[in-house]
User: What shape does this take?
Amino acid sequence: MVPEMQQERSERPGLLVLASTYPRWKGDPEPAFVHELCRRLAKRFEVYAVVPDAPGADPSGMFEDVHVIRYRYAPRRLQTLVNNGGIAANLKRNRWKWLLLPFFVLAQFLEARRLLRRRRVDMVHAHWLLPQGMVARWLGRPYLVTSHGGDLFGLRGRLLAVSKRKVAASSAGMTVVSRAMQDEASAQRICAPSMAVVPMGVDLLGRFVPTDEPRSSDELLFVGRLVAKKGLRFLLQAMPGIIARRASVRLRIAGFGPEEQALREQAQALGLANHVSFEGAVPQDRLPAMYRRAALFVAPFVRDSSGDQEGLPVALMEAVGCGCPVIAGDVPGLADLLGEMAAQVCVDPKDTAALADAVLQSLEHPEQARARADRIRTNAMAWIDWETVAERYGDLLMSCISASEKEGR
Assistant: This one.
C-alpha cells in the first residue's frame, strides 16, 4: 500500500484525465474518443483516467497503457447516468436520475483527490466544461478543459453559464473541437487564458481508410446515439419521398439511445418496415466495414429544442475517413471537416423534401458523390488524423505545465 502522501515518480509527467464517456470494456459501442486520445498521450505522459463505473464495466486497472480508475457513485445497477445516450439525454428522459448527479460529481472529485495524494500529477485534462471542468477547478491543480459541444451548446441557464465561465477563466487553457464552438464560447462570454481549436481524431492511416471494395448502390447508413440533435426523425420523414423515386433504397441505423423506441414507432407508422433496419449497438471494430459498404452516410444533424447541437461528431469523421459519400445537416460545427464541400453536402434536415432530394442526387450520381468524398477526406487528413491531434494536445498540455511551473503553481 502506498502511503497517502507519497508520490510515485516517473520520467514522464503525470496527467490526470477526468471524463464521463469512456469505454466500459474493450469493444464497447459507447464513444471511445477520450480513451483514444489518452492512449496516444501515454507515449508522453503517465496517464490516469478517473471515470465513472457502470454495470458490466471492467474493473479499474491498466487498459492500453492508461491507468483507468473507475469510481462508484451509486449501487452498481443504478449507475446509469452516462451510458445509452449521455448525461443530458438521460436526465431529460428520467427525472429520477437527477438524484444521481450530486453523487456522480462528488465521487469523481473524491477519487481524483485521492489519486493526487498517491501519484505524481503535473496536469489535469477535463473533458467537458461541466461537470468535469468544475471538478478540476475544485482540485486546485492547473488544468486544460476541452468542450465537446453538448456542454457548450446545450447547458443553458444563468447558473450554468456562470459556472462555465468560472471553469474557463480558472483554467490554464481551453480547447474546443470546431471553430463554430469558438464563436459560440465568445458569444457566451466564456473566456480562458488561451483557447485553441483542436478536434478529436480518427485513425485515417489505419482503421478508417478507403478500400477498393464495391459500395452498395442504395444503402444509406446512420451511425450515432439516438438523441434529438442527431435529427434522425427528419431522415425517417424523408424516407417515403426517397422510396417513391427509388424503391430499392434501404436505411441502416447503427446506434442506441433514449429516442430508439419513438424512432421505431415512427418508422412503423410511416410503413418503412421493409426499408429501415435498427442495428442497435454495433461494436467499434465492425464500423469500418459498414462505412465502406454504404452508398451514402446520412447525418441529419439539427439544433434541438434545448439549443444543443453537434460540435464535430466522431461517426461523421470516421465515415469521411473510409471515403464514404456524406449528406449532413447544416450545423456550423461541420464546416472545419467538410471544407469547401460543405455547401454541396449540407442541407436543412427539417426541410424533408430538400433532404430527400439531396440523398437522391447523391445516389443517382455516385461518381460525383465519391469525388466529393475524396476531396473531403483530403481536407480532413491535416485536421483530424489521430497522430496529428494527439501531438497537438500533448504540446498544449506540456505548454500548460511549463507555464504553471514558471508561475510556481
Q: What stands out?
A: Confidence is low (pLDDT under 50) at residues 1-9. The chain has two domains: 14-201+385-407, 219-384. The CA atoms of residues 172 and 400 lie 6 Å apart.
